[in-house]
Amino acid sequence: MTEELQIGKVIKSHGIRGEVVVEVTTDDPDIRYALGEVLQGRQAGKEHTLTIDGARAHQGRLLVKFREVADRNTADSLRGTRFFAAPMEREDGDDEAYYDHELEGLRIIHEGADIGVVTGVMHGPAGEILEVELASGKEVLIPFVHAIVPDVDLEEGTATITPPEGLLDL
After folding, report:
1. Does the predicted TM-score (pTM) go above 0.85?
2. Which of 19, 67, 129, 137 can pair with 14 through a Cys bridge, CB separation 3.0 to 4.6 Å?
């Protein structure tokens, strides 16, 4: 059985023409939500097969129009639908793109010490943010940018951080 990743979730309908607001949790929304792509969705025991008829950015999320959805009522019925797909193949040298499941569970290393673990990944309009539980039990949010997280070693299960002063004190 091929492992599937969640690539998005319908939050609500938008407008009267059947668009839905999708919270994207994918590695590459430009490919996953491209015109003509067919998405497999699950919702409370129901399965949906939906074809992308259009997608555009809106307030940090995507507005998606499906060919099979003609009106707001049908769009409303999709609320909570989660979309799944097989992981995409990595291109050689593509070390900068990571799946959420690859980051979750990584040990956080700061100045040579193991200080915590990644418990989740948030996707915002400015990029990804690592949710980290420190060894002290405190939770912190760390922007997943090269200046702060310069090294991710999936084989070792670690991410080395160089946070600005005060980031871990919040």
Report:
1. no
2. 19
123, 79: one domain: no
What DSSP state is assigned to residue 96? S
| 80, 41 contact by CB (below 8 A) | no
In this predicted model, what pLDDT tens digit does every residue of 108-142 receive, in sequence order? 999 999 999 999 888 776 678 899 999 889 999 99
Backbone angle region of 168, left / alpha / beta, with phi > 0 → left and psi within -120 to 50 → alpha: alpha
CA distances from 31 to 27, 34, 35, 88, 101 (A): 9, 5, 9, 10, 19
CB 83 within 8 A of CB 7: yes
**Domain range enclosing 79:** 5-85
In terms of domains, do 10 and 75 share one?
yes
Sheet with strand 158-160: strands edge to edge: 139-143, 127-134, 113-124, 107-110, 158-160, 151-153
Q: For the domain that residue 164 is a member of, what is the CATH number?
A: 2.30.30.240
